[in-house]
Specification:
single chain, alpha/beta, seven-stranded mixed beta sheet, globular
Length: about 180
Amino acid sequence: MKCLDVGCGNNKAPGCIGIDIIPLDQVDIVHDLDSFPWPIADNEFDRVITNHYLEHCNDVVKTLGEIHRVVKAGGEIIIRVPHYASDNFHTDLTHKTSFGWRSLEHFSTNSSVEYNYYTKFKFRIMEREFRFVGPGRFDPFQLVGIKFLANKFPRIYERFFVYWLPPVELYFRLRVVKGQHDETM
């Protein structure tokens, strides 16, 4: 499985090719990610990971389109971004775009939102989750059921409770749709 880590910095996911603007040790392709197209062939990757990069880019929609272009039909995209209520989002002055539960629904084939005219590229949302602590850390929000309730009732949580108990990040797992045949994959 060929994997691309977009905006990897020095935290490239194991087994992936890393692309970033800064020539760090773990960066394999040095490129300005706000300059399109990226120096990558169409349909080259089975999987793309973007771990806390999308909130930094100048044009999230164009970046999502470029990610869609380089991933094969049926391929997987893993996205982690800070939630708009997270203090991590507001304390980094390089963050440009905030994300909520429904941020990617406008590009999805399986959401309740019917704004399917924004872009030609589409994804299928396979999984999404509010996360209250970083990966691998003890999560008291899970222990007392807050994580379960927030993810079970995301609209209620974001509307009424998100600023009382803010999540650290959002996690999305998407499947690339490039034709009607792979929409149900």
